[in-house]
Structures are given as structure tokens and as C-alpha cells.
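Hi,

Apologies if this is the wrong queue. I'm a grad student, and the batch job for Glycoside hydrolase from Jimgerdemannia flammicorona produced an output file that my downstream script rejects. I'm not sure whether the problem is my script or the file. Here is the sequence I used:
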Amino acid sequence: MSLLFKSMALAATALSILGSVDAMSHVTVNGSRLKQSVDGFGFSGAFGTACELKNNVPAADRQIVLDLLFGHAGARFTILRNLFPSASWITIEPTSPGTPDATPTYRWDSDSWCQIWLSQQAMSYGVSTIYGNAWSAPSFMKTNNDESNGGQICGMPGAANCTTGDWRQAYANYLVQYVKNYASSGVPLTHVGALNEPDLDTSYSSMFISPAQAVDFVKILGATLVSNGLTTKVVCCDAEGWNNAKLYTSAIAADATALRYVKVFSGHGYTNPPNSALTGAAGTGRSIWMTEWSKYSEWTAAWDDGSDSSGYTWAQYLYTGFTKSHLNAFVYWYGIDGNTTDNGALMRYQPTGLEVSKRFWALATYSRFARPGGSVVSSTSVNRNLQVLTFKNRDGSTAITVLNAAYSDVTINFTLISVSGTVVHPYLTNEANSIAAQSPIAISGGGFTGVVPPRALIVFNIPKSTTRSSKTTTHSSKTTTHNSKATMHS
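Support response: The file is valid. Your script probably expects a header line. Output copied below for reference.
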């Protein structure tokens, strides 16, 4: 093969990967082919980050943050994940009653590390899904007599013997008391979890619990919730990575009683991302939630800087989670943190002011337009540069999200089946834009044509048609540029 021919072949390969300028692609959306339902998107205010927002951010900026997190011009997040503190200085049961059967003395400060305040703020925006999750039991209930550094609940199968007895029922009572305390403060918890990363032994609040032990305990917790007349749904088991989440999920799915009580299978993305189905989850009718994930590399607010914390990368994670792991919900780690230097939060507040990352805008693109109660629907494309994920909402609207991996514009001819609407409203996110509104596109002949800029995320939002339109003209709209700094909201 000649050198010239090799060069031509390499150039052709590069073009096929990167995409040619304005190359025409085709996407078919079928609104009648429903996949999994959508429960929502959210974050956590655990370990004092709720207090950072409440106490350390000035009132005007605090309102901006809340509007960004929950408001119509922001992410419209719909899930809040709260920590049940277990350290003696802040837990509801700081001292042992002596034996598991003795009457406990609960202490409720109606604050819980400012998470009650954050929950109430979220509820004022319409958030109704609030998940209370324990990282550990109080120290005196555990085999290591420490709320940190792993350990197990005394009395669990296979656990070391405790001289004080079997504390499993007492731990279930403790969790139920947290649910009751939240309710007494006007915050009804919809979900509760007894475990966080049970496959990880850490120097902070933690327990090291096997899948078999998790099965044993969720049956006790579920029965205790029922006996107290509570409808709070049990979530399990928030493993550190997706591969280990499969072990806990399959163990619960194999036990009919445990499965009856557990309504949500959960896992984190740290050691393994959600890029495959949870073993045993199929056919159970249970929701699948990614309940915690972030990257602790150096802080970046960039959209596409090649890092694992860029907005573009997180848009890919979201797409993969919903298409490969069939997620119903995606919950990031912190919503906002103080003057942090890592990427554990979507925003950070520095002495110079608020900085909003493009990770936030990636999540916000999905969260704002894919609403709880809606469904993922079929959308197909043969262009490998396009990651297309489509949602159909209960209000009849359809949101087609498209992430363009090419380094050039891609023109897309959309074919719409069982999609109601007469006009498309595109919103663009890239380095210069944050869900920036673009020129509307008319739907005609069962479809429309749109353009996605290089390395960009666009949602083509189609409101349900309310009136019959007499216009049949097809408009092709090339996306325009709306400048928006990463530190500002649109």
C-alpha cells in the first residue's frame, strides 16, 4: 500500500470518527415504545454541606443556589438524599439504654445537621422524594463498639458475638424513629436506607455488611415499618460500586420476603460506574437508583477539558446509566460545598463568590426536562457520535437529549412516531452555554431537522400540542450561540 493511500485511509477513518461538517444523520423517536420510568435526579446535603449553604452563604447568593438546585430556571432536582447521623454528638440516640430490649432515649433537635432546613427548602419548590440513609448504627449496637471503622450490627448472622445481645431490632426501631422525627418536623421521608457502602470499611461512619446480612436486616426493617403503619419505601444497598451492587441486588432478589420489602435497588459509581444491568433486578418491578457518585480530582468547572469531572464526561455518564443500567434515578454526591478544591460538589462557594460547574449543567439538562413519572422511550441512531436519550413526560411533552461526540456540527433529521407537538424548543449546553434557549423549530411531516454543535449537549424539547396547527412548513434551524459563563445561571 502506498504512503499516499495509507494517508487517505487514515484521513477517512478520522472523518468517520470525528464526523464531517454538517453531516446528515437520522434519529427515530418512538413515543409508544416505553422503557423504564423516571423517578428523578438529585444530590445530598450530608456531612454539614447543608449547613454550609444555610449558614455560610450570604442570603442573596443562597437564594441563587436554591433556585439553581430546585427552580424552573435551574436543575429542578426532585430527589434529596439525607444522612442519618450516627456520631454521638449529633445522632438521635447518643447513649446506650444498656440492653437491646431496654427503652431507648431519643433526642431530636429538629435540625439534623441543617438537613431539615434543606428538606423544607426543597419541598417549597415541590420536591417530594426525600431519602433518609444511615451510614452506620450508633456505636453501642455494633460489634466494634464504634460508629466508624466498619463493624456489624450485633446479632447479625455471622457477626461476632456481643455481650450486650442482639441489636438488630433496636437498629430497625432507631431508623423508624428517624422517619417519625422527620415527619414531626414537617418532612415526610419517602425512602429509607439502613446501609451506605456496606462493602467498604472506612475511618468515618460505616458498617461492613455482607449481602446475606443485608438480606437478613431488610426483612426486620421492612416488618418494623409496616408494624408502625409507615409506607416509607426501603432502599438497598448503596454499595460503593456497581459491580458490588449486583451482589446485594441478586441476594435480595433471591429472597422473596426481602424482595417484598425492598422497593429500590441502589448503588454508587465510585469503584465501578453504572454501565450494565444490576444482576437479579430485571422483572422485579423495583426501581434502580444511582444514589451517590462524584470525582475527587482537582476542581474543574469546565465543560470539555478532557477530565473525568468535566460536564461533557458527566453527560456521558448520565446517558450510559439510563441506557445500560436502566436507571430510574441519578443522584450526585454534594450539591454545594464550601471552598473545596475537589469535585465532590456540583457547585462551590469561595470568598470570591459562587462557582457553578458544567457538571451541574449536564445533570440539569436531564433533570429539568425528564420529569418524575415520565418514561424513557425508544430513540435510535446509527451515528456512533450521537448519544441520544429520549424521555416522554406525564404532561405529554417529549425531551430528546443528544450528546454530540464529534468535533464538528452534526445535522440530524428526526422522525417522530407517537409524539404529540407542533414545535421544538432546543436548549444548548457546551463551554459557552448553559441550557441556553435556541431558535424554535417547526415540526412538519412527522419530523424536524436540527443541528448539534461539536462536543455539545442539546435537548430538543417538544411540548404537547394543545391546538391544531395549520402550518406545515419544515424549518431547519442551525443552533445559534448564547454566551453564558459557567459561574452564572441562565
